[in-house]
Design a protein that fits this description.
The chain is α+β, with helices and mostly antiparallel strands. It is about 45% helix and about 10% strand. It contains 10 helices and 9 strands. The strands form 3 sheets. A 5-stranded antiparallel sheet has the order 1-2-3-5-4, with helices on both faces. Helix 5 crosses helix 8 and helix 9 packs antiparallel against helix 10. It is globular. Keywords: Kinase, Transferase.
Amino acid sequence: MADTKHSAGFRRNVEQTWGDAGRAWLAGLTGLTARLMADWELTPAGPLPLSMNWVGRVRRADGSPAVLKLGVPESGHLADEATALECFGGRAAIRVLARDDARGALLLEEARPGTPAAALTAHDDPAATAVLIGVIKRLHRPAPDGVALPELSGRIASFRRHLERFPGDDPLPRHLVERAAGLFTELCASATERVVLHGDLHHDNVLAAEREPWLAIDPHGVIGDPGYEIGALLYNPDPDAPHEPVLNAAEARIEQLADGLGMPADRVVAWGFVQAVLSEVWTFEGDGRVTTRPLMLARRLLPLLS
């Protein structure tokens, strides 16, 4: 049986995000895992770090490695992840081997050796950015008709909720949130194409692999403007490390992204600013109390907005 022991931090993340549904899911996690291991003929092969979902290494009946990933089914986020991965079709992303949306379960290809692109940043940040550019170019394809994924434009609701809930400059400067909300609407409206987006593409979500040199993991799965994809990589990786090295690399990354993706630099800056503010807005949708690196990035990018 897979070991479903988990830390207090993991439990807290699940309960704070999904409330009663999260608590009920945690209570049944051991039994759910055992049933899925039997149904999909899996054997445990080792733990993986936990954040918002339970994940573990497993072996299939034929001996091949895989990753079992479980999440609160009521949220639907793993169904979106699976749909996005199926749209990518194995191009620069791991493959879905099995899915059970009703039980919030995915069986996924394991990227081996699994070293994140973040490992490149300390000694060669342009090489890490080049890796992500290559992944983006392979991932992005026009969104299929009728694909069951949310529209990127729907994320304007997070800005609106924040502005309604917080009338002043605490916890975030109101003028930044208002500017980001307006830019978000303009960028979505001016999109020249609609693609299936990873939606959370950064250095720790791109892993070294054998089938392709690099494979993306953990997509959010949304449909919209390709430029949105660059936002998260401007304030990553290592959110708990000193901020200055990442912030100081931002302008060089923007130039490299614009050149590598054939995107106007002012659009890269705008999407970087919007997503940095949106990340902080999401922090305060839950029980977040402290602003982090994305706000620092947003302040740096503000003077560069056209």
